[in-house]
Amino acid sequence: MTQGIDLPDWAALLTAVFVLAGASLTLIGSLGLLRLGHFYQRLHAPTLGTTLGTGGILIGSMIFFSAVATRPILHEILIAVFVTVTTPVTFILLVSATRHRRDVSPPSPPGPMRGPPH
């Protein structure tokens, strides 16, 4: 743990807001993974939560370390680029692998109810 960091109040407040917002979005995405029923729905919630939540946490990290070092720290931009690029690619690969493995087409729109076949 670092001792004796003198962080300005504005930087501490902004850091806390962005880290809490990012953590909340990530938590919501994780809860969506647990609560949603269909595989494709389950995959959608964490993908958004990961991208947006990580973005908020990275912005908070940039503010904190820039205020401590008294110069702009932009290492987190590289992390954000990797997360932004790899998350949708992983989403697409999982969906296409699932469709290929199950050999199913996307769900058809709801239509009139039909009786049992005779």
Keywords:
single chain, 118 residues, mainly alpha, 73% helix, 0% strand, elongated
Quick description:
This protein has helices at residues 9-35, 39-69, 75-102. The chain is an all-alpha fold. The longest helix has 31 residues, at 39-69.
List SSEs in N-to-C order: HHH
Number of spatially distinct domains: 1
Q: Proportion of β residues?
A: under 5%
Largest sheet: none
Mean pLDDT: 82
Tell me what you see in this structure.
- The chain has 118 residues and is mostly helical.
- The chain has one domain (9-102).
- Helix content is 73%, strand content 0%.
- It is built from 3 helices and no strands.
- The protein has helices at residues 9-35, 39-69, 75-102.
- The N and C termini lie far apart (73 Å).
What's the helix and strand layout?
Layout: H1 9-35, H2 39-69, H3 75-102
Helix pairs in contact: 1-2, 2-3
